[in-house]
C-alpha cells in the first residue's frame, strides 16, 4: 500500500493538479491510499473540509478511480499541519501544489510549499503549477 498525504487549499485547479499527479504514480488504484488534508486558517462559518469545493473535487476524482481516499481537516499553519499529518499517518509521500510565477519568482515556491519541502522527513512531490 502506498500512503499519500495531499495538502489541499481552496484552489480547485491546484487541488486537481495534485490529484492527477498521484493518479499517475506507478501501481494500481488498489495499491494507493490517499489522505486529503485541508487546514483552516480562518473558519468563522464552521465549515467542514468536505464542504470545500476543491476537497470534494479531489475526493470524487479518486473515488471514480477506485482509490481509497479519506478527508482530514485541521486548523492552524497549513505547512505544519501537512507535516504533522504525514508523520502521524506514516505517509510514503507528501503532495503539494506549485504556483505559476514570474521568471524571477520561479526560484521560489509559495510559503506553504517551501516550508513543507524544507522541513519534510519524507519525499515531497510538487504538482504542476497553474495560473492563480
From TrEMBL:
SUPFAM superfamilies: Adenine nucleotide alpha hydrolases-like (SSF52402)
All copies of domain UspA, residue ranges: 3-126
Pfam family, one: Usp
Family in the record: Belongs to the universal stress protein A family.
PANTHER family referenced in this protein's UniProt entry, alphabetically: STRESS RESPONSE PROTEIN NHAX, UNIVERSAL STRESS PROTEIN UP12
Protein name: Universal stress protein
Organism: Haloplanus aerogenes
